[in-house]
Amino acid sequence: MPETTRKLSYGEAVNAALHRLMEELPETLVYGEDVGVPGGVFGVTRGLRKQYGERVFDTPISESAILGSAVGAAMMGRRPIVEIMWADFSLVALDQIVNQAANVRYVSGGRLTAPLTIRTQQGNGPGACAQHSQCLEALFLHVPGLRVCMPSTPQDAHDLLVAAVHSDDPVLVVENRTLYFGAKQEVTVGGPVPPAGGSRLRHEGSDATVVTWGAMTWRAVEAARTLAGEGIGVEVIETPWLNPFDTGAVVGSVRRTGRLAVVHEANVTGGFGAEVVARVAGAGVPLQAPPIRIGTPDVRMPAAPILAQALVPDAHRIAGEVRTLVRGGAR
Amino acid sequence: MSERRLADLLAMWRIRAFEEKVRQLRLEGPIVGSVHLCIGQEAIPVGACDALEPEDALFATYRGHGWALARGVPAEPLFAELLGRATGVNGGRGGSAYFTAAEYGFHGENSIVGAGAPIACGAALAGRHDGSNRVAVTVFGDGAMNQGAVHEAMNFAAAFDLPVVFVCENNRYSELTPIADMVRGGRLADRAAAYGMPGYRIDGNDAESVRFHVRDAVEVAREGGGPTLLECMTERIVGHYIGDAEAYRQPGEMERILRREPIARLREGLLADGVPAAEIDAVETRARTETEAAAAAALAAPLADPATVMEHLYA
Ligand SMILES: Cc1ncc(C[n+]2csc(CCOP(=O)(O)OP(=O)(O)O)c2C)c(N)n1
């Protein structure tokens, strides 16, 4: 596929990456519930079935078989890209991800690998129910052997997926439903992509570092803009790859700013925010204030939008907590 | 005889009117998010719930509004739940996909395909130990028949002769994909044989037929005869969710479906039996009037209070 630059939404960028991968890697397979003929419930796999035939197909509602077969196919040299429609449904087949996929390379002493890519999406949206709202990245990050990333821009939606499929490890790509239909942006398709890992500087500032990922990235940036207007400089670092994690960039930033806030949509206890704080603490970075974690309170997700809005961090809440972090005062 | 059929008609109209009102409120805005309607499938909950006792436990799916209504849950707190009101059956926490009203023997919808089946086994197991003689009914779609959890539950129930009735609503689609493309032909009901239990394919658009078979299965279960699988053949007249473009439909398919949909069919039967049209139409009017009143009352209720959002997490 020749390198081109096109205006694409986040969802279209995923689609473009899938087309590219089908063309450049003949061993690629794309499958999952409703991904073939219907083109995906979010339209992300549209056109693939028509163009690539049997390499793209619909499956029964059998997540264990979807993921387990991807492990087996990957062990035999295919590059399966399977879709789990909502991250919540991956729990039905956790065994195949945690006990099987993540295990293959290590226990076989590197003789076998399972380079499958799992595409899914997560997060809260208006009226989504408790079983369609969870942010589960921390669950998967606890599993050694499994790589995890969460793109937040159309360009990264393309690049991270390409890097994931080219990676020789099992990779979980967690997309975001609310971003699928966002504004179109210039996306370079078909060119070289950065390898797995790294981070993105989304806003500059010298008073505090905000580390974030996924849909929260843009709320954190909005908060940083608000605070810039008040003379508070916030450096927003997005870490689209959570494993491998760019500890160096985070530690370097906090060394400069002396303050750390981690913002994620997932609930706080046991979230990856705790890991980020631990890494910064472990690096011995001197801090001017105790680090904070901003996330959803530890509760199930209610269906009523007015209840859910009270839980999921927004730019206003992020700005308020970071303001207090910088200016001091009771939290 | 026509008395009972008029009662069935009313029960089906209550569901149809509720669902049509839900669709209107979803399209107009006060209801948000994903909503799955059961329009066209009303005969199954109506027939099945008629065969249940108050102590029996019912586990439905996200397409469960009709099951909640048929089990006797009033329309107003259900509307309120969809509208995120404090007076909702679950105070706005559950929403469309998680109606729960245990006081009516409605032990909840579920939004994870197939997840209700093992839970129903547990409810049946509990009945064996608490002396209630409870039967558990689990409802799921044709697509759910391909979930490991459903297979495990069927074997579990069969191995222990648990009083479980597995009700499969075969509307021929799993979201946007025809079930015929996802299984190697045949009748889903035949899978029951593999677990050593009876399985029947029945007309799911005929409340009387559903009642007959569910009553039978419940009786067998209650007397220690173990589980039964009922594959109820039906069609949803609407999309998988509100907003589904239904691109997967074949030409002429909807016309065929409408000819055998349960309400129109029952109406024709009643007319053929000599029941006056005015009497039949009065049933629809009554259901629609009740439904409008319930929706209006729910719309007038206060929204759920965000200050309570952390409540009900722990005992
Ligand atoms: C474990 C799981 N996988 C996938 C989904 C997404 N999903 C929701 S409804 C549905 C189709 C279910 O079809 P069927 O069981 O036939 O029931 P119907 O919707 O037709 O009533 C799917 C795939 C889910 N909710 N849970």
Automatic annotation (TrEMBL), chain A:
Organism: Streptosporangium becharense
GO MF entries: magnesium ion binding; oxidoreductase activity
This protein's name: Pyruvate/2-oxoglutarate/acetoin dehydrogenase E1 component
Gene3D superfamilies according to UniProt: 3.40.50.920, 3.40.50.970
Cofactor(s) needed for function: thiamine diphosphate
Keywords: Oxidoreductase, Pyruvate, Thiamine pyrophosphate
Regions crossing the membrane: none
Superkingdom of this protein's organism: Bacteria
UniProtKB/TrEMBL annotation, chain B:
Cofactor: thiamine diphosphate
UniProt EC number: 1.2.4.1
Keywords annotated in UniProt: Oxidoreductase, Pyruvate, Thiamine pyrophosphate
Molecular function in Gene Ontology: magnesium ion binding; pyruvate dehydrogenase (acetyl-transferring) activity
Dehydrogenase E1 component domain span: 12-305
CDD domains: TPP_E1_PDC_ADC_BCADC (cd02000)
InterPro entries named among the record's database cross-references: DH_E1, PDH_E1_Alpha_Subunit, THDP-binding
A GO biological-process term: pyruvate decarboxylation to acetyl-CoA
Alphabetical list of PANTHER family matching this protein: PYRUVATE DEHYDROGENASE E1 COMPONENT SUBUNIT ALPHA, PYRUVATE DEHYDROGENASE E1 COMPONENT, ALPHA SUBUNIT BACTERIAL AND ORGANELLAR
Record's protein name: Pyruvate dehydrogenase E1 component alpha subunit
Organism: Streptosporangium becharense
